[in-house]
Specification:
The protein is of the alpha/beta class and about 425 residues long. The chain folds into 3 domains: about 1-105 and about 255-320, 3-Layer(bba) Sandwich (FAD/NAD(P)-binding domain), CATH 3.50.50; about 110-250, 3-Layer(bba) Sandwich (FAD/NAD(P)-binding domain), CATH 3.50.50.60; about 330-420, no CATH class. Helix content is about 25%, strand content about 25%. A hairpin with a 4-residue loop joins strand 6 (about 80) and strand 7. The longest helix has 19 residues, at about 300-320. The termini are far apart.
């Protein structure tokens, strides 16, 4: 019997497990999934926990709850992949053979990569919200915090859910306003980017929202260290930003086994060189990579993993049947962006098209608005939690195309021209 092995039982790995379980012949293929953690976290929910919008128990379930009964789950940590032998070595010493390997090992925050970040002030006056522990402890901190200078800082640009730090800033503005203490809180958004986002049209819109909410942006700030004694973040060019409360988005890195296996890219962040269209590992024909573990040039977000899954399912089957890998991922990503006070905006983009205004998913009728605040977008963000648990993880089809459509989007135009909807 042939062996398909999946490393990682997060969003991407669980989706692929369910999709391939339904399509691979059960008598010919044994499917195994490996992960060191028993619990599955709905990571978009971490954003809401500090502000009391979600309770911690609403974002965590058992991973096995989403596995087909016929699949084999091994709870262990991967220590090394040996592609030359088609083997995966586990921390326990056990060795797993594979015919096809799917790597869905994700990315995690690494505060220890920045000197002083996770020192004496960690989880006292410095918090992250990209982890279950960080978001729950930050919620307790905010309950009693009396105000001061709140600094939101991105240590790197290559992070999962790149819009989440902006969402945190917007939600913090609403949170302190509703508590009647916004005048006691100075909010600074400190980023290595030259603006609020990576693309010009979205940056203009999001920068306008930051200005409206009186959130100061400090751009081009490349974090080098945290001065714990003076409570300042320090850039490589010695720019200093004082804080009373620091909400950090630490360096994000792929799994350690990637480095141990010499499979990483040149950035030393443990992301695997991957064909951005076929999702096949560039150096190994029978290895495929999905989600945050890849180095493809698109957002590290759950929506991307979902859109990748359709392509990967088809290409794994093509590979097994010795057919050309014809399915092509176009870099499709979309993200709701919470803007506070029960509203959100929405962006939809891919490798070739930046986020643009318009309607989604249907042209003219929408009903979602792109790059425009609405209560419906906020409702969509909250509704997605149910979709995630009941449809996405189980690998069921969703009524949204994996490939991005330009229908309903306004083309870029000169100031004297009217927008053109395609």
């Amino acid at each position: 019997m042939k062996k398909l092995l999946i490393i990682g039982a997060g969003t991407a790995g669980t989706m692929m497990l369910n999709k391939l379980h339904r399509t691979l012949p059960a008598k010919e293929w044994e499917i195994t999934i490996v992960d060191k953690d028993l619990l599955h976290y709905y990571q978009p929910g971490f954003l809401f926990i500090p502000f009391g919008i979600y309770k911690p128990e609403q974002v965590v379930k058992s991973k096995e709850e989403f596995f087909p009964k016929e699949a084999t789950a091994i709870w262990d940590e991967v220590s090394q992949v040996i592609p030359e032998k088609n083997e995966v070595r586990l921390a326990s010493g056990k060795v797993l053979a594979y015919d096809v390997l799917i790597i869905a090992s994700g990315t995690t925050p690494r505060p220890a990569e920045t000197p002083g970040l996770n020192g004496n002030l960690w989880y006292k006056d410095i918090f992250d919200f990209y982890s279950y522990e960080g978001s729950t402890l930050l919620a307790k901190k905010l309950e009693d915090w009396q105000g001061g200078r709140l600094v939101i800082n991105l240590a790197e640009t290559l992070i999962k859910c790149p819009v989440a730090p902006l969402e945190f800033a917007f939600l913090a503005d609403a949170y302190f306003t509703n508590k009647g203490m916004r005048d006691k809180v100075e909010i600074l958004y400190v980023t290595p980017l030259s603006g609020a986002f990576t693309k010009p049209v979205a940056t203009e819109v999001l920068s306008g929202l930051l200005d409206k909410k009186k959130i100061q942006v400090i751009p081009d700030f490349y974090l080098e260290r945290v001065d714990e004694e003076r409570k300042e973040i320090v850039s490589y060019d010695e720019q200093r930003v004082p804080f009373d409360l620091l909400v950090s988005v630490p360096v994000n890195m792929g799994a350690d086994f990637v480095e141990e296996s010499n499979m990483g890219d040149d950035d030393d962040l443990n992301f695997i060189p991957t064909n951005k269209h076929t999702l096949q590992a560039k150096e190994f024909d029978n290895i495929f990579v999905i989600g945050d573990a890849t180095n493809v040039p698109t957002s590290k977000a759950g929506s991307v993993a979902h859109f990748m899954a359709e392509t990967l399912q088809e290409n794994v089957l093509n590979y097994i049947e010795e057919k050309p890998l014809e399915a092509s991922f176009d870099g499709h990503a979309n993200c709701f962006i919470e803007t506070g006070f029960g509203k959100a905006t929405l962006i939809d983009f891919n490798y070739d098209t930046e986020p643009l205004p318009g309607k989604y998913p249907l042209p003219v009728f929408g009903p979602m608005n792109l790059l425009k605040e609405s209560r419906l977008n906020h409702a969509g963000k909250l509704m997605f939690r149910w979709i995630y648990w009941h449809r996405l993880l189980t690998g069921k089809e969703l009524p949204v195309s994996s490939n991005m459509s330009n229908a309903g989007k306004e083309k870029q135009h000169r100031p004297h021209e009217d927008p053109v909807v395609v």
